[in-house]
Amino acid sequence: MWWTVGGVLALLWTVGFFLERVIARQVRLAAEVERQEQMALIGRMTSTLAHEIRNALGSVKGFAQLVDEKTPGSDPRKAGLAVVLQGAGRIEAIVNELLLFSREETYEAEAVDVAHLVREVVRSDASTWGGAVDLSLPPECIAKADREKLRRVLANGVRNSLQAMGDSGHLEISCLGMKRRIAIRIADTGPGIPPEETARLFTPFHTTKTDGTGLGLAYSKKAVEGMGGRIDLSNGDGGGAVLTILLPAAEGDLHGEVRTDRR
Predict the structure, then answer these.
(1) Is it the case that residue 56 has pLDDT exceeding 60?
(2) How much is the pTM?
């Protein structure tokens, strides 16, 4: 009798345990689907709003440029026009970042020479910087990625580091090739990340910069995860910040097919 009751109770407990696991999983999946739908809706709304702002801004900027060209340099209104044009340029840059972040991306995965791409970014964004730049980029670092999106991610990481350090410092970019992954590391000697900011680093529109949009890191996370990778930003052991990007490694001996230059 007692064995029967014990068996029934054990069976009910087991069923309840697994039922709770299944229900919890379904709740998590439903919440994730709802979150994705909300993000998609926000993305569409943001994209529509950004297009409208850009169209209106084009007229304002064009008229201001026309007036500026016809205004003599000695006219005191020239300084005011310069402020208007600077502000219009700033808004235009924000709108472009909004459009970049909100659009639905497609990814063209290919074998990308990380060393070549990093050097291209450094020449473009750090050539006039006053600090030291050290590169450690072995030839076996070949990523399976979308080249243009990876370039944007790297450029954003380099620019963030340079802005954090100011006119001098030490920027170190390295790459480690593994069997199935490659790890790109961008380290700087800036002030590092305040502990209270760590949890919100990749949150859209969150920024600690006075002139930032809060979309650079958010876009980087979106792009890297879209390429099947992971991204992390943390403080270095010796100070400064370290941006780490993990991406799938290109499979096989693809060196003869590696993409280095734009087509």
Answers:
(1) yes
(2) 0.68
